[in-house]
Recover the amino acids of this structure.
């Protein structure tokens, strides 16, 4: 490095992501076939339209437009067009049955937009959106034993293609963007956003430059990455490779790379030639998409408060650490749950947050449901917390009560009454239990009285066990100290 | 002269079937007898060696669907026997241009590349006609993928002959449709019109042909040529039958986003109401051809053939006598842009529409097993497409290439709106002309001889000069027979009206039919029938 070559740390990565988002409509974008074919046998969700038979015509599924409008609005598009067009992108490929893809081109639904992605260090990165449009998916080609097998199930599945500017500066930032995007898509209810199932696909454009320079160097495009972790790993590997190449005095060529998940390496797919000429022109089989004010208002009336906005508001409004607010807004249903619970709870919101983060989330994850799908509804949770606050039940009882309410849907108060779970704060009864424990364990009593006061914990445990966990632990401790000190 | 059931008008065939005077099966039998008598040898995609007898026959059909038709006719007869309504087109023999998909029939588009394609579904207008009781007797020939105006470009040969003289072309691309209807091989036919492909062959074969307003009839199941111009439409021997067909095929379709939701009138009503007060325009631009010299590019002006000009003027006189107002000198200044604009738009769309024929999913494939994809595409398309699709693909690819797109396609779209403006001015109720329709010649000449023009694709295209403006503007056009030329071949006149004015055009056509009912030329019969 004595020759003046920049150090590794002197380089910065310049990354843009091209995502394809599968919208979760029931039917495909231009025909009535079922949209999601996950785990279905090949060529079972197909019809003359999506397989491009002679003479067929596309008819636009309006809910695709609605979902795309929600996304564009959530990405703070500069403008959502009142009139936009589909175009034909012409190219030959066996899994593209019409020989052209119906996509939007130079007259798309939305222009511009951005997302401010919070970074772990506390600052944020503004990621601009350079393209957001609707299109249909192509089929899937599988090479098997020298044969080319084509599954048309995916043909006509509705996609939004969304491309960012070259705004991300590290593999971690790229991962953060995808995490936030996935959160947003699920939050809006427009995509399942499951990368493993191809609902969210990502190609990464990567180049490097010397820190502080404003140039854009030749980039590579990494394809076939099917999880956020893999995107991070692939970008990381590509940044390292590019720095290595540049330092070795070689230039970066505009390759298309394929990420091999198993070996964790990048493979060169092809040298990218000059841009293919897709001979775009307006799709004459479809009318322009007319998004009049009525329709637009109707769509946007369903636009919820966005996750990052809600995170900020929840932290502020309920005086919670950003850590709590982050977890509570990971998923919209949980945030709704929290706010519903807080509304009927008289104590500190932080108490509800603690219960949610520690215990309710455990139930949600083990059951694999959303917060809104719990039997343990917010008001039932608050009923339980109230009983703890009023010292009617112990924390331990409360925790097992959560599971019981979730399992049965019964009111916590009723369960407590029926199963006699109320905390025992009756001094007389407790004194009797304590007296029995003291009488039955002379050795430990001796140890305590010899000055080893920590044994008190063992005595509390014994008493709690005798009382089946219902004893008021503070009262037990008080009485124990008094009675052990006695005599 | 013995009466043949197949020569009756559709409305009369329906009446007799409904009244139990004849059965649908009898009518079908008469039709098949006619097919057997005039059709000649079966057209195939095998290498074609012309024989002199080919010039005496019609060769309208690619596929005759005898069994399918028989089953349909029997079910009509059963309905009649059971006292059920067999539909407004009960038992009427229908020939479908082989550009439409008809369930379980070869749907070839006149191309080798789709020779073995059997459609699993029926086009919407075909379905509607069948629901109304029409019986599909077969699929008729056309220019390959409708690319032509003479029917000579079909992969299925011998080419269709004009029933009035089979040494002449029937016109195209719906030449199989108009020839079959003229020769009594079918009573009605469903055709398509992209630049005149119904009206021009209707004129050449002496039958009625209508291009409805774009969107009036669903395109679902019509194998696309130029999607923004293609219109399915009726071919029949008279206006009344044309109206019956329109009643069946017009209307919205949930499978075609470009099909109009505008209410559909009963086209059979009002046919007899006459033309009193109707404002009918004559435009000088429709009495001459203006086209660029292929060598110099200079614009040449040439009058349409005098006998056709006089037929139009005589018709105008007839209308005036019936109480219509004839407005002369209607300016349609952008008419001559129709063909160049059509060249660009239709070829860009056609090249894209032909992408799907790649040997992968259906149709022709060469070689059978191919590991090299490029080779599969090249060989399949190279061998499967005839010369016309190839020319259109070449020009379409060229014109839509990125570096030219702004210069050609978008400019053509802008010029197209100018052509539309001509019509809007002419039909504007508060404009200076206030026309109900234009009256023009359908074609500049009567039918030409087989082989006379084919190969000169520019000259061939100018056969559509008077019909293509209506396609650009999306407005309806109707061609009806109006006599014969000196060579004994039919002359057609054309009505063009504003959007959704089909009923008015049909009324004008019917008035002309009634006014000329007793004319001697109306009694003439096509040569292929006369010589039976």
């Amino acid at each position: 490095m004595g020759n003046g070559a920049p150090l590794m740390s002197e380089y910065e990565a310049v990354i843009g992501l091209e995502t394809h988002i599968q919208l979760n409509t029931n039917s495909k974008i231009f025909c009535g076939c079922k949209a999601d074919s996950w785990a279905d046998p090949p060529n079972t969700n197909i019809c003359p339209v999506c397989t491009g038979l002679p003479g067929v015509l596309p008819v636009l599924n309006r809910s695709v437009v609605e979902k795309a409008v929600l996304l564009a609005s959530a990405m703070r598009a500069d403008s959502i067009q009142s009139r936009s067009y589909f175009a034909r992108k012409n190219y030959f490929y066996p899994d593209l049955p019409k020989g052209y893809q119906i996509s939007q081109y130079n007259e798309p639904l939305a222009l511009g937009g951005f997302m401010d992605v919070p970074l772990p260090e506390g600052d944020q990165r503004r990621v601009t959106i350079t393209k957001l449009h609707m299109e249909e998916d192509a089929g899937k080609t599988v090479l098997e034993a020298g044969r080319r097998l084509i599954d048309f199930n995916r043909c006509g599945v509705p996609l939004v293609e969304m491309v960012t500017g070259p705004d991300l500066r590290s593999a971690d930032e790229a991962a953060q963007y995808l995490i936030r995007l996935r959160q947003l898509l699920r939050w809006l209810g427009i995509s399942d956003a499951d990368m493993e199932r191809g609902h969210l696909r990502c190609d990464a454009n990567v180049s490097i430059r010397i820190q502080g320079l404003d140039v854009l160097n030749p980039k590579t495009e990494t394809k076939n990455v099917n999880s956020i972790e893999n995107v991070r790993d692939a970008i990381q590997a590509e940044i390292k490779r590019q720095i290595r190449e540049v330092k070795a005095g070689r230039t970066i060529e505009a390759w298309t790379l394929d990420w091999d998940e198993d070996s964790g390496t990048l493979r060169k797919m092809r040298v990218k030639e000059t841009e293919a000429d897709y001979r775009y022109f307006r799709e004459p089989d479809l009318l322009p998409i007319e998004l009049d004010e009525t329709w637009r208002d109707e769509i946007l009336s369903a636009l919820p408060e966005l996750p990052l906005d809600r995170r900020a508001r929840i932290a502020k409004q309920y005086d919670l650490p950003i850590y709590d607010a982050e977890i509570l807004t990971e998923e919209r249903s949980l945030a709704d749950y929290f706010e519903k619970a807080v509304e009927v709870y008289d104590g500190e919101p932080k108490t509800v947050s603690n219960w949610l983060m520690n215990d309710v989330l455990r139930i949600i994850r083990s059951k694999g449901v959303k917060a809104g799908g719990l039997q343990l509804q917010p008001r039932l949770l608050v009923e339980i917390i109230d009983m703890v606050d009023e010292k009617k039940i112990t924390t331990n009882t409360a925790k097992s009560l959560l599971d019981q309410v979730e399992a049965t849907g019964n009111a916590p108060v009723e369960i407590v009454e029926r199963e006699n779970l109320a905390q025992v704060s009756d001094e007389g009864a407790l004194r009797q239990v304590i007296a029995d424990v003291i009488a039955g364990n002379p050795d430990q009593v001796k140890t305590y009285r010899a000055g080893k006061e920590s044994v008190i914990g063992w005595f509390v445990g014994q008493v709690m066990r005798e009382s089946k966990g219902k004893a008021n632990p503070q009262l037990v401790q008080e009485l124990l100290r008094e009675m052990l000190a006695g005599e | 002269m013995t009466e043949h059931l197949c020569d009756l008008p559709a409305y009369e065939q329906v009446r007799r079937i409904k009244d139990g005077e004849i059965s649908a099966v009898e009518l079908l039998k008469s039709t098949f007898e006619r097919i057997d008598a005039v059709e000649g040898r079966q057209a195939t995609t095998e290498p074609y060696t012309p024989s002199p007898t080919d010039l005496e026959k019609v060769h309208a059909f690619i596929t005759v669907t005898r069994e399918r038709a028989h089953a349909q006719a029997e079910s009509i007869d059963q309905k009649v026997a059971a006292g059920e309504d067999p539909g407004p087109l009960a038992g009427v023999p229908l020939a479908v241009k082989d550009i439409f998909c008809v369930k379980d029939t070869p749907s070839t588009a006149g191309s080798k590349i789709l020779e073995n394609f059997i459609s699993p579904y029926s086009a919407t207008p075909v379905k509607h006609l069948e629901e109304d009781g029409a019986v599909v007797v077969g699929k008729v020939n056309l220019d390959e993928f409708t690319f032509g105006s003479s029917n000579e470009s079909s992969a299925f040969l011998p080419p269709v002959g004009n029933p009035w003289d089979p040494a002449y072309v029937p016109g195209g691309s719906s030449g199989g449709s108009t020839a079959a209807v003229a020769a009594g091989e079918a009573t009605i036919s469903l055709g398509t019109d992209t630049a005149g492909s119904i009206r021009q062959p209707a004129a050449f074969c002496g039958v009625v042909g209508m291009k409805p307003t774009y969107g009036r009839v669903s395109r679902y199941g019509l194998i696309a040529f130029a999607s923004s111009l293609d219109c399915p439409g009726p071919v029949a021997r008279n206006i009344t039958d044309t109206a019956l067909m329109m009643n069946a095929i017009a209307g919205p379709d949930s499978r075609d986003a470009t099909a109009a939701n505008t209410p559909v009138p009963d086209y059979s009503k009002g046919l007899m109401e006459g033309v009193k007060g109707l404002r009918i325009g004559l435009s000088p631009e429709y009495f001459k051809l203006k086209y660029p010299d292929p060598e110099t590019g200079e614009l040449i002006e040439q009058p349409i053939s005098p006998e056709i000009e006089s037929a139009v003027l005589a018709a105008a006189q007839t209308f005036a006598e019936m109480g219509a107002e004839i407005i002369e000198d209607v300016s349609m200044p952008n008419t001559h842009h129709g063909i160049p604009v059509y060249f660009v738009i239709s070829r860009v769309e056609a090249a894209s529409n032909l992408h799907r024929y790649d040997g992968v999913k259906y149709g022709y494939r060469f070689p059978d097993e191919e590991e090299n994809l490029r080779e599969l595409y090249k060989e399949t398309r190279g061998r499967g497409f005839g010369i016309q699709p190839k020319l259109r693909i070449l020009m379409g690819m060229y014109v839509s290439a990125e570096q030219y797109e702004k210069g050609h396609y978008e400019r053509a779209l802008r010029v197209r709106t100018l052509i539309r403006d001509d019509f809007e001015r002419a039909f504007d109720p508060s404009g200076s002309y206030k026309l109900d329709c234009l009256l023009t010649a359908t074609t500049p000449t009567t039918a030409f001889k087989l082989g006379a023009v084919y190969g000169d694709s520019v000259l061939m295209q100018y056969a559509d000069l008077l019909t293509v403006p209506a396609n650009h503007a999306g407005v309806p056009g109707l061609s009806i027979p109006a006599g014969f030329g000196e060579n004994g071949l039919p002359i057609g006149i054309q009505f063009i009206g504003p959007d959704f004015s089909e009923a008015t055009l049909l009324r004008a056509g019917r008035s002309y039919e009634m006014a000329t009912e007793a004319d001697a030329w109306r009694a003439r019969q096509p040569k292929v029938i006369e010589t039976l």
User: Anything to note?
Assistant: Chain A has three domains: 8-298, 305-418, 427-485. The radius of gyration of chain A is 30 Å. Chain A touches chain B at residues 48-49, 51-60, 88, 90, 92, 94, 97-100, 146, 148, 150, 277, 279-281, 284-287 (CB under 8 Å). Chain A has a mean pLDDT of 92.
